[in-house]
């Protein structure tokens, strides 16, 4: 990269040296030439070189001298060329009135000389000047009238400027297809001439145009061309392009690429303190995080974007900010705020539409705007064939022209007054209609939001009612059976129907029923809480091995009674989650392994690290699970089967486990083979994850 920069500097120095040498050579020629038309031609060449290097003061000195000599010699071609360069210098100095006046004088002389190229150059320059001042329709006509002649002569420098400015004019009056056509033409010439700055500008505008036309892949292609041309260390261009490129990827939901470019753009613009580009980054990042349901981060970014948009008075980005804030508060169900954002969006949108009314009218014409054949057509009279100096027009003719101008002026003034009155009436009527429409829309939005709130509340109540019905069904069936069995044992003991020896033999069964009822109540309470949306994890770092030790103690007696062996391969390792929720999951998984294991089977507990997460497993060599039944696990529907000793369950344990693990940003799954055994896996993070 350093070599390329050195080469560019070297070539610039060589080019500057060559220009200086040419200027000195022409100055020397002028000093020794006779006072004739050849000297004027040499002077015009010198003026052109001085104009190209922006040495306007020296150029003006030569223009004054050459103009006097041309008038004395009656050399019309010299006067035309000198007047043209005088106009160019006025234009560069933003002296619009003098520039246009000199351009018109120059064009009149070129017409008398029938110099079509000279006329084309003047028209092209006037077109560029008018487009620069925002007079797009007028500037377009001048530039279009010059294009054909410039293309015929292959004047690449003039064509490059003409194509670029035509493209800008079409872009500003929303004639996007035409703008793309001329930017592509400009780009071709810029690449031929090695104009890197012009190539980047054309590629950037083409990217924006394709984005406006919703051709986002083409837009990305041209933005990437700008980045490739700029190089990897050009922060100023990257800071502008990265936010736009990230926004394009966001348009078709490529979140990874969008995030990559937006984060890069954010870092660059934070360093450079470029608020305009930072505003675009923040709006797009807010949109990205909103779509990915990271609502807290999205709100923080969007609020900062809103502050910057108001500070910079960037109404386009502020409008986007209002729209995104409306979507955010709608997602958060803050309906009162949604109404506020909708009103802000509506008012700003109306203001922008009103300000762009003239541009919209021009845009309607621009879709069919081509060169008017009668544009700038020379008005000739029978006696205008001789080349006469402009200062020899008779006083009578001047007076007649003045009278005609007065008449036209008064007629235009009257027409303007009539049209102004008519437009004011239309505006007042339109404003009244907009206000009425706005009030209706606000009322409709409020009604719609209220209906949505009612529907949401109804759905919630129905869900709660379903939870209640399911809860009573399970309590009345499974819990009743366990408690009835326990009550039956107690009644037999109380009536003396059982001997001491018989009671001792029945104690293990009584203990199993009590444990079953306890686990059943435990799962029911946690399941009902989760269904009522009241579970909120409180994560912290804790040791997995400690939880295994506590929960194994609870089932040691039952394992011994059932003849099952425990293999403990757990290691001391930490996870970041809600400990009480994790304990519920481990207790359920151990209870299930015990439930579906037979005498002589083995339960194995273990944990290990994988990709920065902790993987916990509970394996058994029990009856296993069929493929069809695996698909029924972890569902909200209750699904249960009897254990190897006819143990009962609610069918809710694994559903609760899944919900608790997912609340802690983890995963749970099972691998099983019938008559071989099952292994349940739990994956949890080892540290607090960043959004």
Automatic annotation (TrEMBL):
Cell cycle as a keyword of this entry, yes or no, is no
The residue intervals holding the TPR repeats read: 160-193
Which residue ranges does the record assign to the Histidine kinase domain? 474-688
Which regions span the lipid bilayer? Answer: 407-428
Residues spanning the signal sequence: 1-18
Q: What class of enzyme is it?
A: transferase
Catalytic reaction equation(s):
ATP + protein L-histidine = ADP + protein N-phospho-L-histidine
Q: Name one GO biological process term.
A: osmosensory signaling via phosphorelay pathway
What EC designation does it have? 2.7.13.3
PROSITE patterns, per the entry: HIS_KIN, TPR
MF annotations from Gene Ontology: ATP binding; phosphorelay response regulator activity; phosphorelay sensor kinase activity; protein kinase activator activity
Q: Which Pfam families match?
A: HATPase_c (PF02518), TPR_12 (PF13424)
Q: Which InterPro entries match?
A: BphY/WalK/GraS-like, HATPase_C_sf, HATPase_dom, His_kinase_dom, HisK_dim/P_dom, HisK_dim/P_sf, Sig_transdc_His_kin-like_C, TPR-like_helical_dom_sf
Q: Does the keyword Signal apply?
A: yes
Identify the keywords attached in UniProt to this record, alphabetized: ATP-binding, Kinase, Membrane, Nucleotide-binding, Phosphoprotein, Signal, TPR repeat, Transferase, Transmembrane, Transmembrane helix, Two-component regulatory system
SUPFAM superfamilies, per the entry: ATPase domain of HSP90 chaperone/DNA topoisomerase II/histidine kinase, Homodimeric domain of signal transducing histidine kinase, TPR-like
Which PANTHER family does the entry link to?
SENSOR HISTIDINE KINASE GLRK (PTHR42878:SF7), TWO-COMPONENT HISTIDINE KINASE (PTHR42878)
What's the protein name?
histidine kinase
Give the organism, scientific name: Wocania arenilitoris
Organismal lineage: Bacteria, Pseudomonadati, Bacteroidota, Flavobacteriia, Flavobacteriales
């Amino acid at each position: 990269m350093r070599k390329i920069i050195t080469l560019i500097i070297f070539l610039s120095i060589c080019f500057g040296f060559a220009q200086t040498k040419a200027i000195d050579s022409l100055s020397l020629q002028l000093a020794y030439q006779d006072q004739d038309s050849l000297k004027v031609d040499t002077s015009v060449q010198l003026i052109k070189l001085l104009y190209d290097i922006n040495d306007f003061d020296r150029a003006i000195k030569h223009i004054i001298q050459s103009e006097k000599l041309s008038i004395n010699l009656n050399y019309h071609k010299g006067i035309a060329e000198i007047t043209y360069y005088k106009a160019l210098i006025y234009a560069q100095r933003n002296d619009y009135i003098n520039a246009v006046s000199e351009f018109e004088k120059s064009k009149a002389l070129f017409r008398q000389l029938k110099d079509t190229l000279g006329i084309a150059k003047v028209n092209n320059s006037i077109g560029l000047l008018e487009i620069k001042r925002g007079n797009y329709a007028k500037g377009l006509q001048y530039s279009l009238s010059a294009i054909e002649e410039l293309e015929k002569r292959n004047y690449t420098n003039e064509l490059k400027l003409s194509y670029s400015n035509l493209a800008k004019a079409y872009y500003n009056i929303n004639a996007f297809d035409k703008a793309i056509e001329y930017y592509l033409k400009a780009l071709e010439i810029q690449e031929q001439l090695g104009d890197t700055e012009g190539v980047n500008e054309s590629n950037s505008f083409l990217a924006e145009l394709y984005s406006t036309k919703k051709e986002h892949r083409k837009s990305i292609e041209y933005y990437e061309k700008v980045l490739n041309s700029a190089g990897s260390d050009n922060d100023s261009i990257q800071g502008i392009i990265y936010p736009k490129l990230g926004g394009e990827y966001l348009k078709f939901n490529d979140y990874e690429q969008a995030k990559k470019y937006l984060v890069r753009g954010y870092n660059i613009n934070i360093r450079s303190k470029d608020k305009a580009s930072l505003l675009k980054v923040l709006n797009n990042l807010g949109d990205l995080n909103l779509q990915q349901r990271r609502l807290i981060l999205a709100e923080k970014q969007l609020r900062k974007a809103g502050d910057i948009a108001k500070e910079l008075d960037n109404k386009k980005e502020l409008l986007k900010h209002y729209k995104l804030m409306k979507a955010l508060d709608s997602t958060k169900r803050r309906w009162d705020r949604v109404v506020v954002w909708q009103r802000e969006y509506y008012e700003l949108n109306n203001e922008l539409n009103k300000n762009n009314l003239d541009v919209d009218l021009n845009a309607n014409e621009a879709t069919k705007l081509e060169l008017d054949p009668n544009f700038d057509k020379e008005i000739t009279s029978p006696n205008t064939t001789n080349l006469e100096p402009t200062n020899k027009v008779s006083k009578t003719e001047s007076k007649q022209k003045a009278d005609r101008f007065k008449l036209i002026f008064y007629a235009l003034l009257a027409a303007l007054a009539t049209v102004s009155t008519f437009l004011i009436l239309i505006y007042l009527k339109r404003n009244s209609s907009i206000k009425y429409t706005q009030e209706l829309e606000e009322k409709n939005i409020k009604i719609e939001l209220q209906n949505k709130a009612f529907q949401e509340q109804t759905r919630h109540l129905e869900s709660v009612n379903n939870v209640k019905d399911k809860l009573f069904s399970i309590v009345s069936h499974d819990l009743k059976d366990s408690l009835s069995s326990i009550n039956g044992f107690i009644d037999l003991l109380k009536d003396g129907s059982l001997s001491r020896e018989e009671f001792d033999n029945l104690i293990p069964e009584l203990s199993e029923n009590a444990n079953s009822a306890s686990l059943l109540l435990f799962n029911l309470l946690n399941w009902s809480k989760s269904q009522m949306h009241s579970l909120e994890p409180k994560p912290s770092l804790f040791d997995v091995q400690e939880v295994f030790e506590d929960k194994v103690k609870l089932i040691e007696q039952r394992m011994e009674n059932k003849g099952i062996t425990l293999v403990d391969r757990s290691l001391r390792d930490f996870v970041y989650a809600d400990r009480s929720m994790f304990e519920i999951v481990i207790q359920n998984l151990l209870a299930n392994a015990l439930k579906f294991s037979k005498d002589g089977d083995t339960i194995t507990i273990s944990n290990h690290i994988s990709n920065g997460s902790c993987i916990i497993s509970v394996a058994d060599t029990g009856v296993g699970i069929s493929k069809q039944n695996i698909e029924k696990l972890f569902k909200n529907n209750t699904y249960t089967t009897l254990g190897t000793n006819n143990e009962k369950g609610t069918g809710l344990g694994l559903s609760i486990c899944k919900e608790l693990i997912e609340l802690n940003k983890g995963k749970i799954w099972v691998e099983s083979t019938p008559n071989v055994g099952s292994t349940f896996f739990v994956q949890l993070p080892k540290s607090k994850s960043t959004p």
